[in-house]
Each structure stands twice: as C-alpha cells, then as structure tokens.
Amino acid sequence: MLRRSWILAAGLLCALGLPAAHAEAVAPDAFVRTLSNDVIDAVKADKAIQAGDVGRIRALVDAKVMPHVNFQRMTAMSVGPQWRSASPEQQKRMLEEFKTLMVNTYSGALTQVKDQSVAVKPLRGGAGDGDLVVRTEVRGKGEPIQLDYRLEKAGDDWKIYDVNVGGFWIVEAYKGQFAKDLSTGGLDALITRLAEKNKSTASPKN
C-alpha cells in the first residue's frame, strides 16, 4: 500500500511540476514526461521532503501542482451531484479540506522516493484532442505500476483532473468513500468528517 500511495502522490505531483510562467504549447505526452522527471528529481534532492516535512511537501504542491490541476473539477466529480447545489462557501470549504486530505494522506509516501522513474507510453488518439489519457509506468524495484492521467486542454497548457493508479481512478475511489457521508448528512457532514480527519492526521511539522 505504501508503494501505491507514493505512486498516487507522485501522480498528483510529478505530472505537474512546471511553473505557469513557462507554459507553452506542448504535446500532452511530452508534458507528462518532462514534468514527471522534474518533480521526481526535486523530491529526491530535497532532504526535508525525504525526512517527512509536510510543510515542504505542501509548499511543493502549492507552487508546482495547483496551477496545473483542475482541482475544482476533480473535487466536483468526487462529490457528485451535490456539488451543483452547494453554496459558494460550502464549495470553498470542500476544496480546502479535499486538498488537505490528499496532501496529508500521501505526504509520508513521498519520502519513499528512491530510484523510481517514469516511462510514458505511446499516445492513443491525437495530441490535438482536448480531453485525453496519457498512460505511463512507474519503474523501480519490483513490478512496474500503471499510472495514467486524464488531461484537458487549457489554452496552450494542459490540466490534470484525474489519475489512475494500477487500474483505479482516484476520482471514482473518492466518490465511493464520500457517498456514505453525503447520503446521511449532505455536504456539510462530509466537510466536517474530512476536517476532523485532517486535524487528526496533521503532522507536528506542519
């Protein structure tokens, strides 16, 4: 599970490491390849991340990941139909807690990055498609792990809105986890549960 957790964490980090100021028209597979290598190298070189410093990991997420993720779409898809009827304040709180959940859940796994590398598979469909999947494998010790990205075109840039780890899309996985709270108490109940979980798992290094 730890290895899979790292892959998912890396999926949210590695595919998205280029600062927005450097964005330019680029093929989606090249986008994933370049950014994967950049961020894996950054994680390997950062002793604070290797030591489990969640603050450093959060800074990496905020600086390099969030500008290149359609995080609102990812959150809305994970919540499902109740997202459309949520108030702006509820949506804001859900976005904040969902982001914190993902960082807290996978921050420890990022410290396990050692000798992994990412191989991008041949692109299916045209690079000019506005919504597509880029397939990769994470290779290191043991069997390679499937890691795929759902991308959408955003001007000359690409944004990720879902990640597939070993055959499981994370949006669908979170949607299943969230369904119980949503069915019993609505979005407020889900936000409250996530906030409690985030508080209980917060690192003292935060």
Protein topology:
Elements: H1 2-14, H2 28-45, H3 47-50, H4 54-65, H5 71-79, H6 82-85, H7 88-110, E1 117-120, E2 131-139, E3 145-154, E4 157-165, E5 168-169, H8 170-201
Antiparallel strand pairs: 1-2, 2-3, 3-4, 4-5
Helix pairs in contact: 1-2, 1-7, 4-7, 5-8, 7-8
Key phrases:
8 helices, 206 residues, 17% strand, Nuclear Transport Factor 2, Chain: A
Question: Your description of this structure?
Answer:
With 206 residues, the protein is of the alpha+beta class. The protein has a single domain (2-201), classed as Tgt2/MlaC (Nuclear Transport Factor 2, Chain: A, Roll). Helix content is 56%, strand content 17%. It has helices spanning 2-14, 28-45, 47-50, 54-65, 71-79, 82-85, 88-110, 170-201; strands at 117-120, 131-139, 145-154, 157-165, 168-169. A five-stranded antiparallel β-sheet has the order 1-2-3-4-5. Helix 1 (2-14) crosses helix 7 (88-110) and helix 5 crosses helix 8 (170-201). The chain is globular and about 45 Å long.
